[in-house]
Write a structure and sequence with these properties.
alpha/beta, globular
């Protein structure tokens, strides 16, 4: 009799326990799924480039930064060019018309024209760092942890460029700063620069003089370079385009890019070609990067959020690049 009771009570207990276990497993699955998605969302750092000669933060730009939780801005401080006398000189230094937002990390960025690397640049690393630090101090750009160099270097200028970067990195580290550089798609197949990390610039993939294709981003042009992405030895983040170009064409020849209505003289018979990248194409590019190297999308960067470009970004919902 006692044995029968034990068997019956055991069976009675096992049924609710089985139901409880199923419910517990379902609850755990939901919690794990939610935690994973929350974790993924936290790992994505939302950043942007600012490439104008004047930093002037208006209401729409501030709203964009706030609404999209943009945590980092790569701010172009100045260019380095070869002047009319053949000297390597700074040019187009940014003017601060507004204070920098306290909630956003600023990474000072310097663009070096490739021709500069064919000159004597033995002191360029010292001059770069000194000028970057001076600009940051003068304009109260606080909390700088990293500086960045942007240059479309080639095989013929690689050795000179890398030597300069090595010296700059050592000096930057002595000031507690990391050094990053931009990496063009075609540079993925080349030796990696001696820096702390790179930014893959996923745009300007084609020949601007080829009017049959989109020079800003064409996935057919970009595809062959992606085979080098998985094995590239530097830590990478990726910048995606959210800008458009107006190309002034005279006859069959490109006269230049029109950044403003008065940039170039338009003559009767000239043609202005509008070039932009559909959001769907940019999202395809992001997916292509993620398939080959998911960590390269841990920081997603929009190029760029200059004041004149913010309206276009919002109009065509380019902020979706952050969330795709």
């Amino acid at each position: 009799m006692d044995k029968c009771l034990d068997t019956a009570s055991g069976a009675a207990l096992r049924k609710p326990l089985a139901v409880l276990n199923k419910a517990l497993l379902a609850w755990l699955a939901v919690m794990i799924f939610t935690a994973c998605h929350q974790s993924d969302d936290k790992t994505v750092l939302r950043s942007a480039y600012y490439w104008s000669t004047t930093w002037e933060s208006d209401t729409s730009q501030q709203k964009f930064l706030r609404d999209n939780d943009v945590q980092r801005i790569y701010l172009r401080y100045f260019d380095v060019v070869v002047d009319g006398n053949g000297e390597v000189m700074p040019n187009a230094t940014v003017r601060f018309a507004s204070p920098m937002p306290d909630s956003v990390e600023i990474i000072p960025t310097v663009f070096i024209v490739n021709d500069c690397l064919r000159k004597d640049i033995t002191r360029l690393d010292q001059l770069l760092l000194k000028r970057i630090l001076q600009i940051s101090e003068t304009h109260d750009v606080a909390g700088v942890k990293e500086i960045q160099i942007d240059c479309d270097w080639t095989k013929s200028t690689q050795e000179t460029y890398f030597d300069m970067l090595s010296r700059l990195r050592e000096a930057a580290h002595r000031h507690g700063l990391q050094l990053s550089v931009t990496i063009r798609l075609h540079q993925l197949s080349m030796k990696a620069p001696p820096v702390d990390r790179g930014i893959l610039m996923f745009y300007n993939t084609g020949d601007i003089h080829n009017f049959e294709k989109n020079p800003i981003l064409d996935l057919d042009d970009a595809g062959p370079y992606l085979r080098h992405l998985a094995d590239y030895p530097l830590p990478l983040s990726t910048a995606y385009p959210a800008f458009a170009w107006r190309l002034l064409v005279r006859g069959n020849h490109l006269r230049g890019i029109m950044h403003g209505d008065d940039d170039l003289t338009v003559l009767p018979g000239d043609t202005i070609l509008h070039r932009e990248v559909p959001l769907s194409t940019v999202l395809e590019a992001k997916t292509a990067v993620g398939k080959r190297r998911s960590d390269a999308n841990n920081e997603v960067i929009i190029f760029d959020i200059s004041s004149q470009n913010i309206q276009r970004i919002q109009q065509y919902h380019y902020e979706k690049i952050y969330y795709h």
